[in-house]
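Exercise: predict the fold of this chain.
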Amino acid sequence: MVNKPNTAIIDCQTTGISGDKFLGALIDLGVNIEKIQSKISIISNYLEGVSEISLSLINNSIYQFNAKRIQIKFSEKSKHRTGNELIKITEACLNDLKLSDMAKEYALSVVQILINTEAKIHNTTIEKVHLHETGSADTLVDSIGSAIALESLNLFNNVTWFVLPVAIGSGKIKFSHGLISAPAPATLEILSSNNIEITGGDITEELTTPTGAAIMASLKIKSISRLPNMKIKSIGYGAGTKTFPNIPNIMRIITGYQKEIFSNTDEIVILETNLDDVSGEILGHTIKKLIDEGHAKDVCIIPTITKKNRPGHILKVITDSINEEELIKMLMKETGTLGVRVYPCKRFVLNREMKEIEIDLDNKKWKINIKIVKNLKGEIIQIKPEFDDLINIAKNTNNSARIIEKIATKKIRSLFFENK
């Protein structure tokens, strides 16, 4: 029997997710709030104008549901910070805390995602972007507090995170830049760039905040439309501060075990069509467009014999439910096909993560992204360098990609396999 959960699911389909609701759900799973309080108090040492940071726990009973609500209190003199300043403050806080590397990386990732998104929206750089709501102590409490709680629950290592469709709300919200439609632009940008499925929900309010979106994105979360086959270990409920008529303002985190020997399952859609009157040039163009513009996960062509003994092709596309409709339209437009078959299915996949390594060549350091594949036990199954990076280095050094691949493979072996 597995003692540690390998699956965690965020369910915020009705009232969305925010930093304090997420933290409340983690505390409901068994984290001691005093453990978080003792560590986050150092934030005021680095965040100018902030003092007396405290967390308090309120056991809410909302429409018969018991949930943990976190109240964050602090004194803060109004001060706008740049993105670069907040990143340096976050790094200083994390260096002062005795957290694992994974916890530190997670907390920093939440802040970086928020800042990079703000910079993108305002068409500027992290050095120049001026933070308003994002630059407050709330952001650091949510990001660092969540990292502490996740580490305490051992929910970083070998745990696959999923999220059901995220309620984002509607209506209008007032913030530092004026009156805008809900959700905030940063929220939509983060959810979109991380391929997280959304639902409007039944409430005319902002339901999911930018911090809530960044918290999920930093978990490398996968969207699912329904709960997977699993054994449930525990459920944590987190409550928000707003009250809604007849709808409890809560989210939940479900942890448990999936029986598969694979790290996780992925819901995909296979699109398929038979073609017997399309040229090779059009097929090549279509494949490129499906991947570059349609966000297809993969495309393949299978030679076949069609009716009347004509040679033809079966064009197969692997995608997800979010991009399914767009890709069907693209297939029909580019190939002229009259119909597309759709097969929803589940696939088993191993955990993959990207890291960056450096190789020395021609008295210069070159960066290469590598893909690391691990099984459920965390054992490395495969490591491969990104071929585009090899090609780029080969072009700039007048070497063959084959030689660069050998150098990269040797570096990978020394970093991950030798003396282990």
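Check your answer against the key: Residues 101-121 form the longest helix (21 residues).
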